[in-house]
Amino acid sequence: MDSGDKTTTPTPRATPSHEAPAWVRCDGCETLIYGKRFARSFRVCPECGDHARLTARDRMDHLLDPGSARLLETEGPPHDPLDFTDTKPYTDRLAEARDATDLSEAVLCAHGTIQGQPVVAAVMDFRFLGGSLGCGVGTRITHAARTSLRTRVPLLLVTASGGARMQEGALSLMQMAKTAQALADLDEAGILVVSLITDPTYGGVAASYATLADVILAEPGARLGFAGPRVIEQTTRERLPAGFQTAEFLLGHGLVDDVVPRAALRGRLANLLALCRPGTEPGPGQSESGQPAPGQRESGSPEPPDAESVAERPPDGDALLRSLEDLPRREAWEAVRLARHPDRPTTTQYAEHLLEDFHELHGDRSAADCPALIGGPGRLDGHPVMLIGHDKGGPRLAERQRCHFGMATPAGYRKAARLMRMAAKLGLPVVALIDTPGANPGADAESGGQAVAIAENLRLMSRLPVPIIAAITGEGGSGGALALAVADRVLISVNGIYSVISPEGCAAILWKDAEAAPEAASALRLHARDLLRLGVVDGVVPEPAGGAHQDHTEAAALLGRALTTTLRGLVPWDPEELLRARHERFHRFGLEETSQ
User: Fold this and answer.
1) CB under 8 Å to 149, separation ≥6 — which residues?
2) 230, exposed or middle or buried, with CB in 10 Å at 0-12, 13-18, 19+?
3) Cys-Cys crosslink for 412: which of 203, 362, 408, 462, Cβ 3.0 to 4.6 Å?
4) SS (HEC) of 393-439
5) What mean pLDDT value characterizes the chain?
6) How many CB atoms lie within 10 A of CB 507?
7) What kind and span of H or E run contains 159?
8) What string of DSSP letters covers 469-496?
């Protein structure tokens, strides 16, 4: 059982060079490296970049601020619960591991800071029985999670494991469920969990706490999987592809958020902790997530109007065009042409201009990472938000093809859903930038559940307990656009369009002639002026003269003002009021008074 939050001053901090031999041969390229140089680089080969293993103490020395680490102690479980013996007693193996590593178990846990940001870190050491998951490791990981919960400080899990500890039988298996429960408690409390995958991470650790984090980072070349490659090849009698289960392979298959070199880890982790850390205990009238509790408003916040007036009233301030007289009159086809201009800013470019400390996160944690839809946390005018948006890839054809011309696949919408759930957990407003002809129409997308992925997003956004702002920055095509637009406020750029179908598709179906697209565009009422009149959008974002493609910096500044103004009006609202108003907003569409 846990011993409570006892802390001790750690043993003297050892630098990686404390036992460095004069020369070291790299396992990756076999180059001879001067031992002290290898140690100073924290065991990264200067020739090939191979990341050699670090001990748990060296890992803490690398990641945590000097002098900040305070070890957590827990009472260990029975040393040998099964009285297990193979070629030697399990107790002898434990004693040998403790002597060889100067550790009592395969994980070291501590309070600390990373560039001043508080964190609870649980760092595994592969030298201790292959970093295997046994009762002792499960107890320590759980205690670290409970310490994170009690102190409301983010949890960092650094994994290195060959799998479950066979000498503890089914009791070892139970540690997977035990640690998963502990992380579920952090989910409910809205506390950030980050895992750092190091080489190797297999078996029970991979199938529990290593992959249950909000953000999964991996070192270059780190391997992650449930079954090891040797087991897979022996079972299937097939050769595995090169790079199988490596961090780079996993990134391409949507299973990790990013691959980060060891030298960049401290900065990356510190920014994530600063963006997403809830901070202090919730005060009176606040929920565990740090948001105002249902029925409560922040002190000094204005009384919100009723749901109907919220849905109809455009945001305050002069950052948006809110009346038909303010909007230019133009032919609908001209709006279509401008919305599709290949030089319009992409979501990636808007993120670069608008957000500080933006961290793009990757993958649907299932099968793929769709480049047509990007997202991650960042700061908008100092306020942490979760940005999600379609990305067309810019003016170059090859890049647009790589991004499917902004047409997201099911993996893209599932990635968006994952990021929205993360935003809800951490209390981050969602900002969605929409620019897509529509959802991906390919056969693979259909067989991958495109319709289901879109429908799930519509349901998720309708109940997401944080503010949501959607801005149509170019094309808003059909359900592929709506999958990011079930929002408290929907904005559109003055040269944007939003429609149930493309003008060409409408013309082909109803006019039986694709050449009738301009006529169909006019009939669809798809440009900003008509959308504002219909109440589909709440406000219109100005653009530089001639369109956003003429000046990306000015276009971003105008969009940023509109988003910031709108966000300030939504942040004081508590979740129940947001959800009630959001429901009313979409419920009223199609009723007689909205079509006048």
Assistant:
1) 185, 186, 189, 191
2) exposed
3) 408
4) CCCCHHHHHHCHHHCCCHHHHHHHHHHHHHHHHHCCCEEEEEEECCC
5) 87
6) 22
7) strand 155-161
8) EEEEEEEEEHHHHHTT---SEEEEETT-
Tokens 């670090």 belong to: 54
What is the per-residue pLDDT across 430-456, written as a single tens digit (0 to 9) for each? Answer: 999 999 998 888 888 888 888 999 999
Tokens of 466: 């944080």
Q: pLDDT-based confidence at 110, cuts 50/70/90?
A: very high
Rounded CA-CA distance 267/81 in Å is 42
Predicted confidence (pLDDT) at residue 2 exceeds the cutoff of 70: no
Burial 514-539 (b: 16+ CB within 10 A, else e): eebbbbbbbebbbbbbbbbeebbbbb
Q: Find out whether the peptide bond into 200 is cis, omega within 30 degrees of 0.
A: yes
For the record, the structure tokens of 415 come out as 């990635």
**57-69 burial, b if ≥16 CB within 10 A, otherwise e?**
bbbbbbbbeeebb
Percent of the chain predicted with pLDDT > 90: 69
Structure tokens at 467: 């503010």
- 372 has pLDDT over 50: yes
Residue 393 burial (CB count, 10 A): 20
Q: Residue 550: how many CB atoms within 10 A of its CB?
A: 14
Residues 65 and 160: their CA atoms lie apart, in Å, by 22
Tell me the three state secondary structure of residue 284.
coil
Q: CA-based angle 556:561:565, to the nearest 5?
A: 150
The structure's pTM equals 0.85
pLDDT tens per residue, range 32-63: 888 888 888 888 888 888 898 999 999 999 99
Distances (CA, A) of 361 to 111, 271, 387, 463, 567: 26, 13, 10, 23, 22
Considering only the C-alpha atoms of the chain, give the largest distance between any 2 of them, rounded to a whole number of Å. Answer: 86
Q: How many CB atoms lie within 10 A of CB 19?
A: 10
Alpha helices in 87-228 (DSSP H): 90-101, 135-151, 169-189, 203-206
Q: Map residue 240 onto helix, strand or coil.
A: coil
How big is the chain by its Cα radius of gyration, in Å? 27
Residue from 286, 283, 190 nearest 572 by CA: 286
Checking DSSP bridges between strand 107-114 and strand 117-124, what pairing results, if any? antiparallel
Predicted confidence (pLDDT) per residue in 534-566, tens digit: 999 999 999 999 999 999 999 999 999 999 999
Query: 152: which 2 tokens?
Result: 């409301």
Q: Which candidate, 240, 199, 239, 194, places its Cα nearest to that of 221?
A: 199
Mean pLDDT over residues 158-179, rounded? 94
